[in-house]
Amino acid sequence: MKAWPVLALLAAALLGFAAPACPAATVGERYPGLAGGVLRAARLSELPAPVLFKSQELEIRAEEVERLLREAPEDWKPQLEKNRFFLLERVAGRRILIREARREGLAGPGVTDEQAVEALFRRLGAKASVSQTEVRAFYDQNREMIGGAPYEQVSGAIRQMLLQQKQEQAVVDFLSALEKRVSLEVNASWLQGEAERARDNPVDRARRSGKPTLVEFGATGCVPCDMMQPILEKLKTAHAGRLNVVFVHVGEEKVLAARHGIRAIPVQVFFDREGKEFFRHEGFFPEAEVNRVLAQMGIR
Fold it and tell me: Which of 215, 169, 227 minimizes the C-alpha distance to 1?
């Protein structure tokens, strides 16, 4: 498996247009698939123009998002211009984690915000563990992706990767649980325009087409990614007009990959006719297994 550098954990944790949303609507209800985490449950509110996000005493204003955009690496800027909500999610997630770390008593004299958040991560992931059975199962299911390396040679790396995934999921679960106990608000008027720009991409267009969609997140020169290409081409021909098959090069679409929580490649994500995620798989996916998932979606 080939790891791919995307924005830090906060970015990964935090994965139809209508008239301006009423205050009762949430981001996830009004714009399905746009938010990746805690902001999915944020209420759409008519906040004062400079304020983009509010949660109790926390406020994030437009100038902070614009500053992040100016400071972003040059190769990210063209994508971030259309994804200011992605930046808002990132900074909102960081601010919320800092606040929760302080409430957990992890901040104090001489402790930076980053150190407090890292301590919170360690606490949340402390109970995560990976069994020998899980390591073996991953190896057996991804033997081709690993290049046929002996189990003893790669078991340690597999265990560490699976452990990291569980620790990251613990943070995601923690953020999701906040939805039930804290007030989260996003500026409805601002988001309406930003959502339209953010969803102007091949994945969201396919998801909104009314047809099932298979998206492959990968790159050229990645062995398991290259192994998937003949399968994808065959699917395009076999199911023309009935199935969208989309390839996303994560090196060229970094924000899109980060929005969908891509931490390693290749990843296949299946969406149903309504654009909702149906199934995802990480690593090389044999043609028979792809067809099995498609059959469950009604594509034969």
Answer: 227
